[in-house]
């Protein structure tokens, strides 16, 4: 079984981390079953967030009785110190614990630092002193914020999108985190569903000993897939390298990663799925996306009021309204 040391925290986690965003979409009993099955099969690191509706509560229900045997990270999107404390109290209550192993700023638009007047970093330090958190982390989708977080040496861990579609700049960040002894937690290791070969995704990341991927898991078959990689961890083969090269060519450039940071949309367009529909139709079984429900969701693109809120919020600099339009046109042709 591959293991990862999360930099200076010295926390040792299974290379298979459990990303607990998708469990907000399933019932409590099913989520508890999945989480406990993951634990009993060796997974010991679970990542959630205040923003993931009831995901924290599900973790609390599954693990409060074995708290010290697992590593939990959660996140706050607070913009002020007051909200930071409210979020932290809620997370502790939901998780049924009195400490969080890694508490992360959730995709802030700037890198919180002492004396920056937001009071956020000071709040982190105080929470650490009080024993409510063990380590300070930050998550981001922006190269510049992530780079700054590494350079300031203020953070124990960085959570950043990283998969086999990584750019040279992404790889530099991964390297810089290692040089600075910072834990690197890889989100979107399947690029939000666009990478369909999880074995190749795992094998690629296995080359980076200090990187801990968190796989977003919602179904038992997905969990089983990752558990199966523990006994004999996949390593890159020539065949996989060819596949990865093909995917890189197909997915290079400006494509929607499905992160959802551009939402909510005033017209209630499900941007994170609709803006990458063309790719999903061709890379995943297309039947799912041709249902009446999806046809309605895609038709809703007609209601875009071109407020450009989404464009301004997209960390990848995408022209989201234009991308939606293109995907809608392609969808109609595909239908
Ligand atoms: S530009 Fe269109 S898609 Fe984007 S937020 Fe505004 S209404 Fe929604
Ligand atoms: S348009 Fe940008 S912000 Fe919105 S889901 Fe896609 S990548 Fe994320």
Give an overview of the whole structure:
- Keywords: Iron, Iron-sulfur, Metal-binding.
- With 335 residues, the protein is an alpha/beta fold.
- The protein has two domains: 3-245, NADP-dependent oxidoreductase domain (TIM Barrel, Alpha-Beta Barrel); 271-334, no CATH class.
- The protein contains 14 helices and ten strands.
- The chain has helices spanning 28-40, 55-63, 81-95, 120-129, 143-152, 168-179, 198-205, 220-231, 238-251, 271-274, 277-283, 292-299, 309-313, 320-334, and strands at 3-5, 12-14, 17-19, 45-47, 71-76, 100-106, 133-139, 157-161, 183-187, 211-216.
- It has an eight-stranded parallel beta barrel, surrounded by four helices. A two-stranded antiparallel ribbon has the order 1-2.
- Helix 2 crosses helix 3.
- The model has no long low-confidence stretch (mean pLDDT 94).
- The structure holds iron/sulfur cluster (2 copies).
- One iron/sulfur cluster is lined by residues 265-267, 269, 271, 304-310, 320-321, 324.
């Amino acid at each position: 079984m591959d293991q990862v040391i999360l930099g200076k925290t010295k926390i040792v986690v299974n290379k298979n981390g459990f990303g607990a965003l998708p469990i907000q979409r399933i019932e409590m009993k099913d989520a508890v079953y999945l989480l406990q099955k993951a634990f009993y099969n060796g997974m010991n690191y679970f990542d959630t967030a205040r923003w993931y509706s009831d995901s924290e509560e599900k973790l609390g229900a599954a693990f409060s009785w074995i708290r010290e045997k697992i590593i939990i990270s959660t996140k706050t999107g607070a913009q002020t110190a007051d909200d930071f404390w409210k979020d932290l109290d809620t997370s502790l209550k939901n998780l049924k614990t009195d400490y969080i192993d890694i508490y992360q700023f959730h995709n802030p638009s700037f890198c919180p630092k002492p004396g920056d007047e937001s009071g956020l970093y000071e709040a982190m330090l105080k929470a650490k002193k009080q024993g409510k958190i063990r380590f300070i982390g930050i998550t981001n989708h922006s190269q510049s914020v992530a780079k700054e977080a590494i350079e300031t040496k203020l953070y124990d861990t960085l959570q950043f999108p990283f998969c086999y579609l990584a750019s040279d700049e992404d790889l530099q960040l991964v390297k810089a985190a290692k040089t600075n002894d910072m834990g690197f937690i890889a989100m979107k290791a399947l690029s939000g569903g666009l990478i369909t070969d999880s074995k190749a995704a795992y094998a690629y990341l296995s080359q980076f000993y200090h990187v801990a991927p968190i796989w977003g898991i919602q179904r038992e078959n997905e969990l089983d897939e990752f558990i199966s990689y523990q006994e004999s961890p996949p390593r890159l083969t020539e065949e996989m390298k060819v596949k990865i090269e093909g995917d890189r060519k197909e997915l290079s450039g400006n494509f929607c990663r499905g992160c959802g940071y551009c939402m909510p949309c005033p017209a209630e367009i499900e941007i994170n799925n609709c803006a990458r529909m063309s790719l999903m139709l061709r890379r995943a079984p297309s039947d799912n996306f041709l249902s009446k429900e999806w046809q309605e969701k895609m038709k809703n693109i007609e209601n875009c009021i071109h407020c450009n809120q989404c464009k301004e919020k997209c960390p990848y600099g995408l022209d989201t309204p234009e991308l939606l339009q293109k995907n809608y046109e392609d969808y109609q042709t595909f239908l």
